[in-house]
Amino acid sequence: MDYAGCMVATDQGSIFARSKEPTAVGDWVHISADGEPNVEHIAERRTQVTRRDPEGRVQVLAANVDLVLVTAPADRMSLARVEREIAIGWDSGAEPVVLLTKADLDDGSHITGLRERLLGVRILSVSAPDSDGLDDVRALLQPEHTAVLLGPSGAGKSTLVNALLEREAAETGEVRGGDHRGRHTTTSRELHVVPSGGYLIDTPGLRSLSLAVDEDAVLATYPDVASFADDCKFRDCTHEHEPGCAVLQAVATNDLSPERLMSYQRLLKDLDYVRRRDDPVAAAANKALWRQRSMDVKRMYRDRDKP
Q: What is the DSSP code (8-state) at residue 35?
């Protein structure tokens, strides 16, 4: 069997060890005491942050984390991406927290938009070069707490890591002037010990962010949509066209923004696509479900038109 390698932090410092099983940053492992270091056992993970790679395989980005710090750069805001990363955070078993980075470039509209759009999630405003908001982030990274940073290239993750560590531990680079996209200055995932006693995992920027979560994580990301959905006439309502849809009624009465609903539906459709692509049984079940929904709607209209 081929052996993979990983760096293991020990009381005597970091050492390289070989492992028969794939490891993720944040794993707790037992290594052999004699001879060449080998990983003999990987402890069961409390939490794990995952995504699907471009080939459709589930990739573990980090393990045993308590917080998923979603970086949302003020110079290149994407609420849809932030919501996807929040869903990844909830699905991991950890708590997602949104960091508005490069906050010195925000005129107040981005932080307001995040707070209006995102419910049930802590949102912090951070400008690492000015040290603004750093104490709020440090307060999260207390002893025995581990956090992982997620976000696109150029979001300021490496700059934030250096500010929190109070040393140049991560390489930083300039973003492009036209679209503010950054280069991949961070090329691997690495765990750092921060002065406040906690642990921080830095990750490369991910251009591809295909979800590997379940529907419960999406519902946790959109608690407002979920609360309205409880009053829908059909239990399996898609909130697209069904009569008696409480979610569509909430949009009509301005109690729910249409953008929020569209983002929710987009995530569910992405999950449904992945499920049908990977599971023929799920594909057949989905086809049967839509057939039944069509019959239910036709029957309702037919019964309504009866004298």
A: S
Amino acid at 78: S
CB 209 within 8 A of CB 202: no
222-305 falls under which CATH superfamily? Probable gtpase engc; domain 3 (1.10.40.50)
Residue 60: alpha-carbon gap to chain centroid: 12
Rg of the chain on CA atoms, in Å: 22
Question: CB count, 10 Å around CB of 274?
Answer: 17
Q: What is the helix (H) or strand (E) element at residue 226, kind and residue range?
A: helix 223-229
**In CATH, what number does 45-202 get?**
3.40.50.300
**The two structure tokens encoding residue 131:** 């040290």
Amino acid at the residue 279? D
Enter the DSSP assignment of 174.
P
Select from 42, 57, 3, 7 the least CA-distant residue to 201.
7
Domain with CATH 1.10.40.50 in the chain: 222-305
Owner of token pair 């869903």: 87
Q: What is the DSSP letter of 181?
A: P
**Residues 280-298 pLDDT 10s:** 554 455 556 556 656 666 6
pLDDT tens profile 52-82 = 776 677 889 999 999 999 999 999 898 988 9
Instruction: For residue range 203-225, list pLDDT tens digits in order.
Output: 876 655 566 677 788 888 999 99
